[in-house]
Design goal:
mainly beta; 132 residues; elongated
């Protein structure tokens, strides 16, 4: 009888010890990479002159696949426009490359800002444009 109790206590201790251990953490888990948006375009234009603005989207060192882009828009707003900018859908011109073509009908200072969401992250670079 004592032998049975001793075996039961030892078995219970081993079971509790095994259940109390945390699983080893995977040190090879993929680290999040930065979502980079390289926004390019002219910083100065004449009134009614057309300009092309291009966003090249990369995640780490790789171009983002178009299927991984959740949202992309370009916002054009006159300085001190107080949230009255207009949103434009760009056209895809390559893997991870999007562009718009636009002109400005009034002189002034504008911002062209891309809004890009991909792989669970968001990036919003902007360019300031002076129109004469």
């Amino acid at each position: 009888m004592k032998k049975r109790i001793s075996i039961s206590i030892i078995s219970l201790c081993l079971l509790l010890t095994a259940c109390g251990q945390e699983p080893a953490q995977n040190t090879n888990a993929e680290q999040p990479k930065p979502l980079d948006v390289n926004l390019q375009g002219p910083g100065a234009l004449q009134k009614n002159e057309s300009g092309i603005y291009k966003a090249e989207v990369t995640y780490g060192d790789e171009k983002v696949k178009n299927d991984d882009v959740e949202m992309i828009e370009f916002e054009i707003e006159k300085k001190d426009g107080e949230g009255k900018g207009k949103m434009l859908k760009p056209k895809q011109v390559g893997e991870g490359v999007y562009e718009i073509q636009t002109s400005f009908s009034e002189p002034g200072t504008y911002t062209v800002q891309s809004h890009v969401s991909a792989k669970g992250t968001h990036n919003m670079p902007l360019i300031t444009v002076t129109v004469k």
